[in-house]
Fold this sequence. Notes:
The chain is of the alpha/beta class. The chain has a seven-stranded parallel beta sheet, sandwiched between helices.
Amino acid sequence: xxxxxxxxxxxxxxxxxxxxxxxxxxxxxxxxxxxxxxxxxxxxxxxxxxxxxxxxxxxxxxxxxxxxxxxxxxxxxxxxxxxxxxxxxxxxxxxxxxxxxxxxxxxxxxxxxxxxxxxxxxxxxxxxxxxxxxxxxxxxxxxxxxxxxxxxxxxxxxxxxxxxxxxxxxxxxxxxxxxxxxxxxxxxxxxxxxxxxxxxxxxxxxxxxxxxxxxxxxxxxxxxxxxxxxxxxxxxxxxxxxxxxxxxxxxxx
Length: 253
């Protein structure tokens, strides 16, 4: 196996793993030798995907996790330590969007829900992952932000606020823990063909959305996960505090 993508013996915890980026990343890490603790609010879905991965011979634990609850995030790390003895990789992927609406219609309930999942969920994950990584003297964390976390997102203001906060957490964590050999980075995808997009956008709307990118299309989940693997690579030892746009050229225009 190419040493750049050899995760043999690495222990990864991944939130939001029942579908989308989280599920695909878990599958790809398992192929490359990682041991996994995966979670999702969708308990049935995450156990089903874990059973599929376990059938390939990989070591994996699945559990329900509401990332807005600190104790649930702690339980993930505790499970990894109890079963595998360490946490090498933390992927804070769980996230939610909200309906498109103008900023002046965003109410407190929408804000609270966005920040509970998209911000507190990342901070809680980082908190317990970092505590263990400090004991080990190393680790890598990857947070999932968005292009909405880099620039404005018309009609998606609460989501944009939350994803900007993820970038703030990522950069601050990278500065605080760089001397402890803990790398913390984020990815910022443009619209990608996961359920978060396909559940509200039909083919015609997807086509219109894709025309906003110089590559004239939306992203494929496998394209985002390929970059996630490269950021988390055990050979990628000097990259931290970076928030990488995977956007078909949107940020270059």
